[in-house]
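Protocol step 4 of 5: obtain the predicted structure for the target chain.
Materials: sequence only (see below). No template structures provided, no constraints applied. The aim of this step is simply to have a reference model before the mutagenesis design in step 5. Sequence pasted as it appears in the construct record:
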Amino acid sequence: MKIALQIILVFVILGLGWLVYQSVQEPIVFQEKYEKRKAAVVERLKIIRDAQVAYKASNEKYASTFDTLITFVKTGNYKITKNEGTLTDSMLQAGMTEKEAIKLGIISRDTVYVSVKDSICKNLNPDSLEYVPYSNGAKFELGASSITTSSGLVIPVFEASVANKVFLQGLDNQERINLDETAKQLNRYPGLKVGSLEEANNNAGNWE
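Step 4 output (structure tokens):
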């Protein structure tokens, strides 16, 4: 009987040790997987932002749907201005401006058109643009609008976002809930997003 109790005690101790080990490891494992998934989602949001900036350069507004944005990525071009030549230190000290340098031919500007697909989405199938990595086919939320500043200036804005519960599905749910609660306490969006429909934030991502 004594030996049996000792064996049971050993198993209880091992079991408790395993539970303690798991309680310590779970947050570490969650954080590692969170950072990996976050990096992939942020990379996709950056591509969406670049595509929206190119779309606005051509259309003076942002795309409000992924159908519109993806079509533009597949077929659209946007213009960029290339500068050649620079002002030397002596020219700057003499008070020469860039405008004057252009007139004198010291600096030249050339406008060229670049394929959106080949530049912004060269490493991504445009049809995948709207899908959230690690989400089993879930899509980013996308919206576009305009806001009027206090001075009466109308500014186009857009926002692309995904909640933590979408791209962290399958991971420890309590850890994800803790992450959401921390974000809410700080009055932040419980997920990842770029741009804003409520303010002109220069298309910043909330991870930046």
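Step 4 remarks: Strands lie at 77-84, 108-115, 141-148, 154-163, 191-195. The CA atoms of residues 73 and 117 lie 5 Å apart.
Proceed to step 5.
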